[in-house]
Specification:
By secondary structure, the chain is an alpha/beta fold. Strands 1, 2, 3, 5, 13, 14 and 15 form a seven-stranded mixed sheet that branches. The chain is globular, with a radius of gyration of 23 Å. The termini are far apart.
Length: 528
């Protein structure tokens, strides 16, 4: 077979494609952005056809630089939770419900009442029933759109839908199924009690496979649309964050990967199904058989982007005049500020806080601002705040008995040397940047697909062959000591903010919240 591999990353607002050789060299890439439909604040949808249309457009761009008929196998990295419902003719029943959609608040509460969050964590690995997970959304459709629900014959995640369009087969895999909350992470089978409660016929659901398994060859019609050979193989893929972890080489014990894009996502694979005794850290099925990952996300690079767009007009104007990226200009200013930003602390929770400190009511805060603080201080404080959240996740991972000795970074944040050094200094861990740091999801998808097609003996051997470290950032002991103090202040600042929110809730406080409030109020007696 031809030895080129295509990795496809289907993200929330863009689709990216990259073609690799078996040595890991990227020979071509293309990306296309698309818009989401948000008719109401809590509704986020996309036309099901937009994903295939975007893939076709990207393939046309690729053909300008590479003979796509020489691609031997295709793999996928895909956003989680996005639902596509098909009728008996396999046509979409309306738009896809995107993972960000939060319409199903009442349905999530109904699931919590029926099953309880403790059982949810035990069965699915997700810490609680929430409106964003597919189980609640399916129940919402059943209760609010009964005519649509009655026509469902295939209930698919986005990866399943694209694979169906390419092969005509209905298959799914565990890394995406984990967060549906109707799949049992322990048995790797659908959760029967949940299916019955929300009204899903098991016949609607795809066959469960592992990530990196061959599904078949591309259909002739799809091959024509995409410019592929009809002999091209199609492989199952995985959740985008799992693909990114593989693409950055995070497949062995002791490695922690972080991705600062719009969100900050972290991933730690483990061979053992390990639960957080405090039930704060979600557990997902990983892209390797019988392997799991601690994975969560929260507000990330969007905080710095908000700061750039709101307060850095000079840098944006210079970008237009000189071509120098505004972020590079901000980085230069941040380098002039001492570690700790002269006491300025940022809570970067512009859209709430996720695990291990879930608080959907959390808001962004700048704490400790004085007349001496400049715009550069605020930028550095934002960067440091994401480092503190990484450190908080490392603490939680450590409490679960999982050891971490190095960090691998990816995403837009990995392009900033000063930010990388800040993260290394805060955590006290060496932080490694790979050559593929900006295309890790596509590379991870390609590694899985290449292994499925027999181009590599194993995912491990493929990673050793295709992933290479470009630069390492070693923590400085003196700066780490400074950050240890600042990190404690960051946690105390978060505690004060959480206490204020709980107080504002008044009589609605649950017993757990009352205990938490008492603990948090103790922070007020401590000097920041």
């Amino acid at each position: 077979m031809d030895r080129l591999i295509l990795g496809i990353d289907i993200g929330t607002t863009s689709l990216k494609t990259a073609v690799f050789t078996v040595e890991g060299k990227q020979v071509a890439s293309a990306v296309l952005e698309y818009s989401l439909l948000t008719p109401e604040t809590n509704i986020v949808e996309a036309p099901c056809g937009i994903y295939m249309d975007s893939l076709c457009a990207c393939m046309r761009m690729l053909r300008k630089n590479v003979d796509t008929r020489k691609i031997g196998v295709v793999g996928f990295s895909v956003q989680g939770e996005t639902l596509c419902m098909l009728d008996e003719s396999c046509k979409p029943l309306g738009n896809a419900i995107v993972w960000m959609d939060n319409r199903a608040v009442r349905q999530a509460e109904a699931l919590r009442t029926r099953f309880g969050d403790a059982l949810c964590y035990e069965v699915t690995g997700q810490v609680s029933f929430e409106a964003c997970w597919p189980a609640a959304k399916v129940l919402w459709v059943r209760e609010n759109e009964p005519e649509r629900f009655a026509k469902i014959r295939h209930l698919l995640l986005l990866e399943d839908y694209i694979i169906f369009l390419l092969t005509g087969k209905f298959v799914a895999e565990g890394s995406l199924l984990t967060s549906t909350e109707y799949w049992d992470i322990r048995t790797k089978e659908y959760w029967g009690e949940m299916l019955e409660f929300i009204g899903i016929d098991p016949a609607w659901l795809p066959e469960v496979r592992e990530s990196g398994e061959l599904v078949g060859t591309v259909l002739p019609e799809a091959a024509g649309l995409l410019g592929l050979s009809e002999d091209t193989l199609i492989s199952t893929g995985c959740l985008d964050q799992a693909a990114g972890a593989i693409g950055v080489g995070n497949i062995r014990p002791g490695v922690f990967s972080e991705n600062i894009g719009a969100a900050l996502a972290i991933c730690v694979p483990t061979k053992t199904l390990t639960y957080d005794p405090n039930r704060k850290m979600p557990v997902h099925y990983f892209a390797l058989p019988d392997t799991y990952m601690m994975h969560t996300f929260t507000t990330g690079g969007m905080c710095l982007r908000w700061f750039r767009d709101s307060f850095c007009r000079v840098e944006l104007d210079l970008q237009e005049e000189t071509g120098i990226d505004a972020y590079d200009l901000i980085n230069r200013e941040v380098e002039r500020i001492a570690p700790g930003a002269d006491g300025l602390i940022t809570l970067p929770h512009l859209q709430g806080s996720m695990a291990p400190d879930v608080n959907l009511n959390a808001k962004g805060v700048f704490y400790g601002a004085t007349l001496k603080h400049t715009k550069a201080h605020f930028a550095r404080s934002i960067m440091e705040s994401l480092g503190y959240i990484i450190s908080r996740n490392l603490e939680t991972i450590g409490d679960m008995g999982l050891e971490v000795n190095q960090i691998r970074t990816m995403g837009g944040g990995s392009k900033s040397d000063i930010w990388n050094q800040i993260k290394a200094d805060i955590t006290g861990k060496t932080l490694n940047v790979t050559y593929s740091a900006q295309d890790t999801a596509c590379l991870g998808a390609a590694i899985l697909a290449g292994t499925a097609a027999g181009l590599f003996e194993s995912v491990e051997s493929a990673v050793d062959r295709m992933v290479r470290i470009k630069r390492s950032f070693v923590p400085d002991p003196e700066r780490h000591a400074i950050y240890q103090v600042q990190y404690k202040k960051f946690l105390l600042s978060a505690g004060k903010t959480r206490a204020s929110i709980l107080v504002s809730c008044g009589a609605r406080l649950a017993p757990f919240d009352i205990r938490e409030l008492r603990e948090l109020m103790e922070y007020d007696e401590m000097e920041l």
